[in-house]
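JOB MANIFEST
job_type = single_chain_structure
chain_count = 1
residues = 275
[input]
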Amino acid sequence: MQNPPAPRKGIALFKWIRLVFTAGIEIVFSYFAWMLRYSAHPEKYPLEERYAKVHGLALSLSKKLRMNLDENFSSSVASLRRSTLTVSNHLSIMDIVALLALSQRPITFIGKKEVERTPFVGRCVKAIGGFFLDREDPKQAVRLFMRIGKAMKQSPTLVVVYPEGTRLKDPFQEVGEFHAGTFKLLEWGDADLLPLSCFGTFRPLSKAEHERSFPVEIKALPLKRKEEFDGMSTVEIASFARKEVASQVEELKRYDIAYYEQKKNRVKAGKWWRK
């Protein structure tokens, strides 16, 4: 069984135009009604109020982009009692939208500073108190992680980070190496670890994809308590987390390939209207 060709890269402008036309009035209204003020001064508004708006918009957007979410993430995070570092592979900007749509419990993100300038996702992440990392300034990264760790110690916080540091150009590539520095937050934030695997999030905004619905798989792996990593270096923890995530991603790829192969066979048989 061969991998289906990865969707062609549409130019960024095309993707954002499609996004605006798909979600249309709702995004524009949200942008001026609350997104600008929440992202400019998040400290002036309760987190619950800000997150409810972002969650509702992400949920609506995921439906309008026909994302068929198959997941166990929402149930996994609902029962968490301690601060938790969630680490995941990274395929698309829609990874963030999908997680925001799934979790009714407030979550936040650490992203590269380039994300901060994106017109929609960047504003949403800022509105929920997200953090932006300058990869060219290691000292800033250390200061930022220490600040995040302090916040995680003060109150239970769920922080999502993509330790590959960038998105894969080809979603069927192997999961990239995880940066060890990410896992300092387990110590500095007295946090547990929740590995997460996702696949399919690259399809809804692809120029080459036209489907009634897009299967998106998001699977939380078993929670690992901070104490389980006693005596391990951050390099060892990063290697362990990557192995866990990558193994699950390979399973999700096989499901994705089988789904589209079956769909292709149905089209050939003249049964394209059936799922």
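[summary]
The mean pLDDT is 88.
The chain has one domain: 12-267.
exit_status = 0
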